[in-house]
Amino acid sequence: NIRDFIATENCLEGKTILVTGAGSGIGRVAALTYARYGATVLLLGRTSSKLESVYDEIESAGGKQPAVLPMDLEKATYAEMQQLEGLINKEVGQLDGILHNASLLGELTPLEMYDVDIFAKVMHVNCNATFMLTQALLPLLKDAAHGSIVFTSSTVGTHPRAFWGAYAISKQAVEGMSDIFTQETRNTTTLRFNCINPGGTRTNMRAHAFPGENPMTLKTPEDIMAGYVCLMSDASIDVRGQVVALQPKD
Ligand code: NDP
Hints:
CATH topology: Rossmann fold
Radius of gyration: 17 Å
Number of helices: 8
Bound molecules: NADPH dihydro-nicotinamide-adenine-dinucleotide phosphate
Number of domains: 1
Largest sheet: 7 strands, parallel
Strand order of the largest sheet: 3-2-1-4-5-6-7
CATH class: Alpha Beta
């Protein structure tokens, strides 16, 4: 069971894993956790100061030296993502996994009134940029013995829900992207593509989405890390095209 995976020490040893939105929330804790299990972590996000603090936390915990990759997924061009692929190849020489974690919540409002500029921005960060970054990094990922691409969905990505607008639509698109990548690569590579749905988790995004909720009733990012580690470790090499819900009753 992926949710209850018991990680062995150093189960990510020798792997290089890129985490988007690594400066805060679930992405920050995933980056720290991957480093704790032996991975070299590439910290991508839009706020350098937050990425640098995560870098310092990893270093002081004795993890492998990470790398800070400042990139605003709203503005980054495909050419910049290809340059990033070249840079990772030159400086690190390998890429075994991507955790596509960064995303925007946008507005919670009926589609009839949804601001079209916010709609485009949310779709771009959550869906288009996720696709662009995956495609740009594929050459390196395909060289990995068992590469793992993990997209982040949400319960509203599996079951559309009124008022969740572009966020829900972008997460449905991400689930479709994972499925199509899986079908197209199943017979030709060892690469695997899956989605993770963390379920309600104590972060800034959750607090914005549910302002009346007591955050202390929610799991913390640390509580749900078993699934995040499992999908990056070789324990999951046969898991393909799944949407893994970490809190199925959410
Ligand atoms: P947070 O809002 O706390 O963190 C989101 C991260 O994404 C931040 O590090 C943020 O950077 C980064 N980010 C946002 N926009 C961009 C951008 N344009 N370029 C680069 N990075 C960007 O969210 P969570 O930690 O709660 O969510 C993590 C993932 O889990 C998301 O995909 C979310 O949809 C999903 N999820 C979360 C749930 C929850 O209950 N928390 C439930 C279901 C799904 P910065 O800090 O600089 O703003």
